Amino acid sequence: QVQLVESGGGSVQAGGSLRLSCAASVIFFSNNVMGWYRQAPGKQRELVAVVTSGSTTNYADSVKGRFTISRDNAKNTVFLQMNSLKPEDTAVYYCYLKTILTGADYWGQGTQVTVSS
Which one is predicted more confidently, 51 or 30? Predict the structure, then answer.
Protein backbone atom coordinates (compact mmCIF):
# COMPACT_ATOMS: atom_id res chain seq x y z
CA GLN A 1 0.00 0.00 0.00
CA VAL A 2 1.45 3.34 -1.05
CA GLN A 3 1.29 6.13 1.50
CA LEU A 4 2.00 9.80 0.87
CA VAL A 5 3.14 11.71 3.96
CA GLU A 6 2.82 15.48 3.78
CA SER A 7 4.39 18.15 5.96
CA GLY A 8 4.93 21.89 6.00
CA GLY A 9 1.46 23.41 6.13
CA GLY A 10 0.54 26.16 8.54
CA SER A 11 -0.58 29.75 8.92
CA VAL A 12 1.12 32.77 7.41
CA GLN A 13 0.33 36.37 6.61
CA ALA A 14 -0.22 37.54 3.06
CA GLY A 15 3.07 37.96 1.25
CA GLY A 16 4.72 35.22 3.29
CA SER A 17 6.12 31.86 2.25
CA LEU A 18 5.63 28.20 3.07
CA ARG A 19 7.25 25.02 1.81
CA LEU A 20 5.31 21.78 1.54
CA SER A 21 6.93 18.36 1.34
CA CYS A 22 5.49 14.97 0.46
CA ALA A 23 7.28 11.65 0.66
CA ALA A 24 5.99 8.40 -0.86
CA SER A 25 6.40 5.26 1.23
CA VAL A 26 7.78 3.30 -1.73
CA ILE A 27 10.27 4.06 -4.48
CA PHE A 28 8.85 3.91 -8.01
CA PHE A 29 11.26 3.03 -10.76
CA SER A 30 8.70 3.57 -13.49
CA ASN A 31 7.53 6.93 -14.82
CA ASN A 32 5.16 8.77 -12.54
CA VAL A 33 3.68 12.17 -11.85
CA MET A 34 3.77 13.79 -8.43
CA GLY A 35 2.24 17.04 -7.39
CA TRP A 36 -0.24 19.05 -5.41
CA TYR A 37 -3.93 19.78 -5.55
CA ARG A 38 -5.90 22.00 -3.20
CA GLN A 39 -9.45 22.35 -2.00
CA ALA A 40 -10.89 25.46 -0.42
CA PRO A 41 -14.15 25.35 1.60
CA GLY A 42 -17.15 25.05 -0.70
CA LYS A 43 -14.99 24.62 -3.80
CA GLN A 44 -13.87 21.70 -5.93
CA ARG A 45 -10.39 20.25 -5.66
CA GLU A 46 -8.10 21.91 -8.18
CA LEU A 47 -4.64 21.31 -9.57
CA VAL A 48 -1.87 23.49 -8.16
CA ALA A 49 1.25 22.03 -9.74
CA VAL A 50 2.58 18.69 -10.93
CA VAL A 51 5.98 17.39 -12.02
CA THR A 52 6.84 14.24 -13.94
CA SER A 53 9.72 11.93 -13.13
CA GLY A 54 11.41 13.58 -16.13
CA SER A 55 11.01 16.99 -14.43
CA THR A 56 8.37 18.41 -16.75
CA THR A 57 6.18 20.77 -14.76
CA ASN A 58 2.67 22.16 -15.05
CA TYR A 59 1.19 24.95 -12.93
CA ALA A 60 -2.22 26.45 -12.41
CA ASP A 61 -2.35 29.96 -13.86
CA SER A 62 -3.19 31.36 -10.42
CA VAL A 63 0.15 30.24 -8.93
CA LYS A 64 2.55 30.75 -11.85
CA GLY A 65 5.48 32.92 -10.84
CA ARG A 66 4.78 32.44 -7.13
CA PHE A 67 4.97 28.68 -6.55
CA THR A 68 7.76 26.31 -7.55
CA ILE A 69 7.44 22.53 -7.63
CA SER A 70 10.45 20.24 -7.48
CA ARG A 71 11.20 16.61 -6.71
CA ASP A 72 13.89 14.24 -5.55
CA ASN A 73 13.46 11.08 -7.63
CA ALA A 74 15.84 9.04 -5.51
CA LYS A 75 13.56 9.58 -2.51
CA ASN A 76 10.24 9.87 -4.37
CA THR A 77 9.68 13.17 -2.61
CA VAL A 78 8.01 16.26 -4.02
CA PHE A 79 8.24 19.82 -2.73
CA LEU A 80 6.14 22.93 -3.24
CA GLN A 81 7.76 26.27 -2.46
CA MET A 82 5.01 28.85 -2.07
CA ASN A 83 5.99 32.52 -2.11
CA SER A 84 3.96 35.73 -2.15
CA LEU A 85 1.04 33.89 -0.62
CA LYS A 86 -2.42 35.40 -0.90
CA PRO A 87 -5.56 34.84 1.20
CA GLU A 88 -7.10 33.06 -1.80
CA ASP A 89 -4.38 30.40 -1.49
CA THR A 90 -6.02 29.27 1.75
CA ALA A 91 -7.02 25.62 1.31
CA VAL A 92 -6.23 22.05 2.22
CA TYR A 93 -3.33 20.97 0.04
CA TYR A 94 -3.20 17.34 -1.07
CA CYS A 95 -0.17 15.49 -2.33
CA TYR A 96 -0.80 13.39 -5.45
CA LEU A 97 1.01 10.59 -7.22
CA LYS A 98 0.06 8.81 -10.44
CA THR A 99 1.96 5.84 -11.80
CA ILE A 100 2.04 5.92 -15.59
CA LEU A 101 2.49 2.15 -15.95
CA THR A 102 -0.65 1.16 -14.03
CA GLY A 103 -2.60 4.41 -14.03
CA ALA A 104 -3.09 4.14 -10.27
CA ASP A 105 -3.70 7.37 -8.31
CA TYR A 106 -2.64 7.98 -4.73
CA TRP A 107 -3.50 10.87 -2.40
CA GLY A 108 -2.08 12.20 0.82
CA GLN A 109 -4.23 13.03 3.84
CA GLY A 110 -4.02 16.78 3.22
CA THR A 111 -2.32 19.66 5.01
CA GLN A 112 -3.96 22.97 5.85
CA VAL A 113 -2.52 26.22 4.50
CA THR A 114 -4.07 29.41 5.88
CA VAL A 115 -3.10 32.84 4.61
CA SER A 116 -4.40 35.84 6.53
CA SER A 117 -4.70 39.35 5.14
Answer: 51
